[in-house]
Amino acid sequence: MKTSLSFRLLLGRLLTRSGDQAWDFAVPIVLLKLLPDHLRIAALYYLLIRLFGVFLIPRIASVIDTKDRMSVVRIGLLLQFVGVLLGAASVYTLWTLGTLNPSFMDSRFLGVFLFMVASGLIGSLGASLMDIAIANDLAPSVFSGQDLARFNSRFRQVDLATEVGSPVAAGLLLAFSDSWIPLMGFFLVALWNLLSFF
Fold it and tell me: Which residues contact 104 (CB under 8 A, 6 or more apart)?
């Protein structure tokens, strides 16, 4: 039974983590595609999500201890799903506005950018919940001794494989576009990520 559980946990991790890594790679690249002369905007998006994460994740982690681990996993998956869905909607909005002035003095652009940062933060918090709930809580309660060491080793291997492979796959998808849907590859990455949560 533990082998079956280990396989299911690792497969779930592979699917969700690959989608996360692809998404984290795709969003800044698409921002650069939509706003080619504004590298600072893509950089600021990424910086804000990581910075807010540094401050919020420890607070979230303390709440995890008071919840049932399966509830935490469900909440993490839901937050990731909502974050990706809202992030894709904000990129779509940015794309449809087209002629939008990419300046923080423009209230429409600022609104879309802040919405995008908020959705990225929601997804990032969900991913962190999943990391903590599975690696630090669920695995030690199910496995022990050599089984735990073996599971943790494979868990890290899955993470490393997705860190390398997912951005490459996302880059190949991002290169795919259609004349009437230039962001087709981005939406395929979003779909990949959304489906991985199931």
Answer: 110, 113
| Single-letter residue type at 84 | V
Q: How far apart are CA 180 and CA 182, in angstroms?
A: 6
The answer to whether 84 touches 121, Cβ cutoff 8 Å, is no
pLDDT tens track for 47-105: 999 898 888 877 777 767 677 777 878 888 899 999 999 999 999 998 888 666 777 78
- Cα–Cα distance between 111 and 108 in angstroms, integer? 5
As a whole number of Å, the CA-based R_g of the chain is 18
DSSP-assigned states of every residue in the chain: -HHHHHHHHHHHHHHHHHHHHHHHHHHHHHHHHHSTT-HHHHHHHHHHHHHHHHHHHHHHHHHHTTS-HHHHHHHHHHHHHHHHHHHHHHHHHHHHH-S---STTSHHHHHHHHHHHHHHHHHHHHHHHHHIIIIIIIHHHH--HHHHHHHHHHHHHHHHHHHHHHHHHHHHHHH---SS-TTHHHHHHHHHHHHHT-
Cα separation of 130 and 187, whole Å? Answer: 24
pLDDT at residue 72, rounded to an integer: 79
